[in-house]
Amino acid sequence: MKHNAQWHSATIRAQRDLSPSVREFEIRPERGVRPWSVGSHLDLRVVVDGREEKRSYSLVGLPHAPGDAPGADEVYRIAVRRAEPGRGGSRWLWGLQTGDELLIGEPNNHFEIGWQAPYTLLVAGGIGITPILGMALQLAQRGAPLRMLYAARCTDELIYRDTLQAALGERLCTLCSDAGQRIDLDAEIAALPSGGQLALCGPLSLMDAARAAWQRSGRPAAGLRFETFGNSGQHAAEAFWVELPRHGLRFEVPAGRNLLDMLEEHGVQALSDCRRGECGLCAMDIVQVQGTVDHRDVFFSAAQKQANERLCACVSRVCGGGVVLDSAFRPD
Question: Where would a tag sit more exposed on the chain, N or C end, judged by fewer CB atoms within 10 A?
Fold first, then answer.
């Protein structure tokens, strides 16, 4: 891998399986752990089909604090669900062995909550527990009022249940879909005291349901904080074609690649930031679509997605055909 100022050498110090589909990695940076806050993510340089790509993973647990045992601040911890099918990053990571080297970035936080809120409702779906875990532990340490809902497909996938149970006790509620259990978001939000906040992370379906329930409640938009995976959708990923008339381009986006990366590979400059369908910076105008646009973002509203006028290039796809797009490019 090519080393540059953005990336720094690190080593896999340890790894352990938390469930049949989730593995936790301890990553020891060569230059030492940088200060980070709960909700932060860490960028990793992965190799997929011979290409170097960036992936972001939430840092698990709590940052080092004064008085911690020696060595507690030597590693970052991430938990990675092996996605099958997926974009290949998780398969690459699962192929690493203890002692292997990799390149990482600096911790960044785009998922902060208000620590002075009168009450906090935490919701985690599946691997969405990774950023929520530290929030729960830190709120508990501070003695802040909270309730946590932790949902997964089955009991084995509740990977940090014991840690949370020890810290939260009866404030933790776990639900498993294979037992027919579902989160009643409307009821949970209605029970929130005035000024309470909701922080959640999970699949796109959970994000959409939470945003709709929060809007129905009439609560201030600022009280809802969320982070999504950015690669889940309503349809299975498949190849689709893209046409950009202003550039004279037509190309295919393979099932395992995203539109934003393919645009950049074809020399089309596109603004981007989060690459998870949250910020909307990479949104492009839709001129025509053949098939169905699978809007995998949490930036546009349900009405905007229904209108099919724009899409987020970092996560959205097309099923059953392709799309004609208008970029910001204008020839001189």
Answer: C
